[in-house]
Amino acid sequence: MNSLAWLAGCLVALSLPASAGNPFGAAEVQDEELAQLRGRYVMPGRIIHFGVTMSSIWENSAGQTIGAGVTFQLDEQAQPSLHITQLTPQGEGQGSGGAVIPGNGQVVGGAGLTGVQGISQSVRSAGDFNDGLNNLEIVVTRSADTPTQAADAAPWSGQTGFTGAAGEVLVSTRNGGLQIQLDAGAQGNALQQIGGGNITQQANFSGSLNTARNLATLSVALRDLPLGQDLANCTLEQLRALRPGGY
Fold this sequence. Notes:
Largest sheet: 6 strands, mixed
Strand order of the largest sheet: 5-12-1-2-3-6
Distance between the termini: 32 Å
Structural class: mainly beta
Shape: globular
Strand content: 35-45%
Helix content: 10-25%
Radius of gyration: 26 Å
Oligomer: single chain
Number of strands: 12
Order of helices and strands: HHEEEEEEEEEEEEH
């Protein structure tokens, strides 16, 4: 009896493919197979909103600010909208009237940071007591309501720039995506861009006592499933169709 059990075990082991030799081990999945996963876990009609929001703002040592934001939205009818917001209204952001500490530092190198495929975030400082933040957030919600535009947002009409006491900011398109370039003169600069297979956020300080914020949000709003619709079974059916041969 023991001999038969041992022989059966050997035959089963030899009949398994190499990838299944260890049923609890990891199995490699090819890129082509991963590409089939896109969109498989969201039922048709469930996405009611998709949006991208970027904002960049700079404040110098005198409290003077300059910044801009851009918002792209796509509703369930696939109707896109693109709006720009000046984050420093006219007459504001001029600070307390104090003198700006001169910037004499120099940030060198870093040219390859804008060529990264994926996400690149960097804060580099050649001054003292600077504060830089790069943040990317992905938000998935279940709601029947779609976000509304800010009251002071202006529809996109092409490349747009704003100028203030702290510097200037330019919102433009790049590689099929969006870009915000912020120039604070001798105090430094900031960059934020999305598109072309990458997301880049940079803050470079050449002065002191500056604050820079690059914020980006990718948002998706899903419609709740009707009562009685079994999402788990739908997902299992999609997984079963993904790889008929098994692992």
